[in-house]
Amino acid sequence: MLNNLQQPVKLNLGCGGYKSPGYVNVDLYNPARDLTCDLTKFPYPFKDCSADEIVMSHVIEHLSWRLTERVLEEVYRILKPGGLLKLGYPDFLECAKNFVDNKQGLRDWWKQTIYGMQIDDGQYHKAPIITDELVDMMRAIGLKTTEITSEAGREYNKNITAIKVEPLNWF
Fold first, then answer.
1. What is the pLDDT of residue 31?
2. At residue 7, what are phi and psi to the nearest 5 degrees?
């Protein structure tokens, strides 16, 4: 269905309540999604090299830390050569430091940035995403970081843009 389109294929994996126009919005919990997919089950229902862009905004930290590398490998599989990954997440080290320091007297807020809001099953943070480690993992898989920015007013939230290239050959 999705891979026969003539226009660029753009996926919003783990869209939650935020449907992005022009994207196939994929989620497990939110009924407003275009497609239901459990991002902990592999493979995802997309063909190899079929997507021009994949967005995962505040999703990766909600999946088990044991699956982080596998999820990125799956994204790599789905992206076309030169395709873009746009990934947003709270940087664990910055959030933990802000919690310990009780930055701005907002300890409960910093606790939520570490553990998630925990309103429903999809709102738990299960992976401590650390920017430097994530960039290294992505590069080894073949996702080369082109930009890292911080969210305005929430500098602990990071946004990475990466392009699909050849994976690093260590041997």
1. 86
2. -80, 165
Helix (H, G, I), strand (E, B) or coil at 129: coil
Q: For residue 84, which amino acid is it? A: L
> Dihedral, CA atoms, 57, 63, 64, 70, nearest 10 degrees?
-80
Predicted TM-score (pTM) above 0.90: yes
Could you report the per-residue pLDDT of 4-47, keeping only the tens digit for each? Answer: 546 899 999 999 888 999 999 999 988 889 999 999 999 999 99
In total, the chain counts a number of residues equal to 171
Type of residue at 116:
G
One-letter amino acid for residue 38 of the chain: D
The structure tokens 């994204």 sit at 75
Rounded CA gap, 158 and 91, in Å?
6
